Amino acid sequence: TLRLIGTTTAVLRKNAGASGSEKYTEAFIKKQIEEFNLGKRHLANMMGEDPETFTQEDIDRAIAYLFPSGLFDKQARPLMKHPTEVFPEQRKIQWGEDGRPFHFLFYTGKQSYYSLMHETYEKLLNVQKHQDQLVAQDLPLQKEKRNLAGSRWLTKIELEEMLLEKVSDDDYSRFIKLLQKLVTMPCADIEEKYIQKFSKEVPVQLQKVVIEPLQYDERGVAFSTGEGKRKTANATAVVYDNGTGKITVNGIDILHYFPVLQDREQLLFPFQFLGRIGKHDMVCTVSGGGRSAQAGAIRLASAKALRSFVTEKEVEFMRQAGLLTADPRVKERKKPGQEGPRRKFTWKKR
Amino acid sequence: DDKLLTEPLKHPDFFSVKELFTLKDLFDARVHLGHKKGCRHRFMEPYIFGCRLDQDIIDLDQTMQHLQLALNFTAHVAYRGGIILFVSRKRQFCHLVESTARACGEYAHTRFWQGGLLTNAHVQFGPGVRLPDLLVFLSTLNNVFEPHVAIRDAAKMNIPTVGVVDTNCNPCLITYPIPGNDDSPAAVELYCKLFRMAIIRAKDRRRQSEAVEEL
């Protein structure tokens, strides 16, 4: 956000509605909707299509055809959308004919947020009253524990969408603390429905990477494929079972393709880790990158392929050894005013 | 229409506000209890009855008069369809004050007061906002024990104020001060009840008068 000099925070905080609120009356929006529908029919006639079945995608295509624009920013190009999408919902005038605002907390500035706090506090008081009643009657308080592990509270952005108004970080944290206080009370089950409005389910099972089953070729030998990347090198590896430990890269034997010992060590590392050096055959294709990058790419590809041959525990061991993680390091760009990505120009005192 | 507006002004107590409370009610609600002698504000000395064991006692006779004037004024404002804004920065009574306001059909502000709410309203809310016609303070101090900014802002914007002033408050800029306790729950509940009843009475009278006029 831009910081204007010589103005107050109120000017920065004001939304589009503050300056254009005369336009956003109910009557205005209705008129806009009528004009939009008429325009849609005219457009359909112009394009020679049926006005009744003219969808939003057709409108977008027609506008793009009639008003071709080379502007880079998509939001700067000609736009024809339904008024409810164009005019933000909240900015209708908040007071009636006689000037009296509709909401009783209008003069606070953040009416939806404070009314939410008010409601939540009311629920808290209800729960306390209920608790006091139970204690007075000497009844035991309910001890069913709510499962907190599988749910999360709404994020700040989701809350903003719900309230149609900006919420600051402090306000958001205060609201969450109030909700947590409500939840920790013993008789909070009464207000379950209200609390559920603000909590979301978190899928407990993280995305489990699906290990592909083994495939069998014409000779009945089991094989599996894997893909790997490192810097700019892309590799695919096909690992065959019941082999002698022969490894071919782009149709060439590894001894000829990788003269350096370090690269061959990298290729053999997954097999050595699992103790299966002489048991598998491998045929790989690799392109791009340099010597070391290609070796790293093939290593990743072969490790991924070997997952199908091996138990889940060993897959976990491989993951912890770092065999299944793609190396994210790429060449860093050169910055202006510097010699390289990090190296600065020689500093001369005079 | 003119008759509707001028008729109530001829009577000293058109809405019979005196019947809403008695001295005993005020005493039972502990309205007379003030703060300690050290917290006393200089301008509150006329309203203090005396001091017992270092605690100030507020003169309930004066409180009765001031309360009657204030309730009468609030009722007249509500009769003429004015916007009443309840202000209080006490956290314990925030919910109570907001519910009272909602019950009356008026407005409340018990949260952090943003600087330009009254003085910069056209920028904050938008052109054509109607400002409150009366501010009712259930507690004139804010959380740092300083006078609430709204008192000064209302004076700047020519908005009349009604406020409950305790022994440590400054009653200067408030049009209708009500010397009394603002910390006990019983006292604040009593004030809320009185204001609510006064406003509802005034609005009912207005509706009756309008119905009679139409006939």
Q: In summary, what is this structure?
A:
The complex is a heterodimer of chains A (350) and B (215). Chain A has 350 residues and is α+β, with helices and mostly antiparallel strands.
Can you count the beta strands of chain A? 8
Task: Indicate the multimeric state.
Answer: heterodimer
Strand content of chain B: 15-25%
Overall number of structural domains of chain A: 3
Largest sheet of chain A: 6 strands, mixed
Function (chain B): Required for mitoribosome formation and stability, and mitochondrial translation.
GO molecular function (chain B): structural constituent of ribosome
Keywords (chain B): Mitochondrion, Ribonucleoprotein, Ribosomal protein
Main location (chain B): mitochondrion
Structure notes:
The complex is a heterodimer of chains A (350) and B (215). Chain A is α+β, with helices and mostly antiparallel strands and 350 residues long. Chain A has three domains: 26-86, no CATH class; 106-201, no CATH class; 215-321, Ribosomal Protein S5, domain 2, CATH 3.30.230.10. Chain A is 42% helix and 11% strand. In chain A, the strands form two sheets. A six-stranded mixed β-sheet of chain A has the order 3-4-5-8-6-7. In chain A, strands 1-2 form a two-stranded antiparallel ribbon. In chain A, strand 6 and strand 7 form a beta hairpin. Chain A is extended, with a radius of gyration of 32 Å. With 215 residues, chain B is of the alpha/beta class. Chain B has a single domain (21-214), classed as Glucose-6-phosphate isomerase like protein, domain 1 (Rossmann fold, 3-Layer(aba) Sandwich). In chain B, 39% of the residues lie in helices and 15% in strands. In chain B, the strands form two sheets. Chain B has a five-stranded parallel β-sheet with strand order 5-4-6-7-8. In chain B, strands 1-3-2 form a three-stranded antiparallel β-sheet, with no helix packed on it. In chain B, strand 6, helix 6 and strand 7 form a beta-alpha-beta unit. At the A-B interface, helix 1, helix 2 and helix 6 of A face helix 4 and strand 5 of B.
